[in-house]
Amino acid sequence: xxxxxxxxxxxxxxxxxxxxxxxxxxxxxxxxxxxxxxxxxxxxxxxxxxxxxxxxxxxxxxxxxxxxxxxxxxxxxxxxxxxxxxxxxxxxxxxxxxxxxxxxxxxxxxxxxxxxxxxxxxxxxxxxxxxxxxxxxxxxxxxxxxxxxxxxxxxxxxxxxxxxxxxxxxx
DNA sequence: AAAGAGATGGTCT
DNA sequence: GACCATCTCTTTT
Length: 171
Prior knowledge:
The chain is mainly beta.
């Protein structure tokens, strides 16, 4: 489920450099959801979404930006959670380097910005995020669950806009 | 501070 | 050929 990812860490650990951020905003997308990439069934693009949970689904948005999702459904379900925002934790230097002349508050506070700042791209699609020593992983460092949730409408979609499946953690 | 528009390319009809 | 799960820069209050 989407809220379960709030508070966890997205860690990118490669090229001898560790970058991480705490997930503070997500959106849920399911198979029976008109706004979801999986709505019309499996295609070449969304194949990862229909795979097992815990994999990274990355797509190209508006021809320019990459957006990262965590597959949350069982194999064949076509369900994923879009990572909308993280708070930088480790590797702030590297994140700033990838996002030149942006204020600190705008480094990873959006799905495209998050990918840019953390260095994620289409080439990373399909990565198993549950491998303890993998290059990209979701980590539960404990005690980081939000004290409460704020839900709201999803952003940037034109269908099923009334479905309040955007989740922001508050601490 | 808010609003508007352009960039840019894969995917699906 | 239309439609985007967005971002950034420029223009206007």
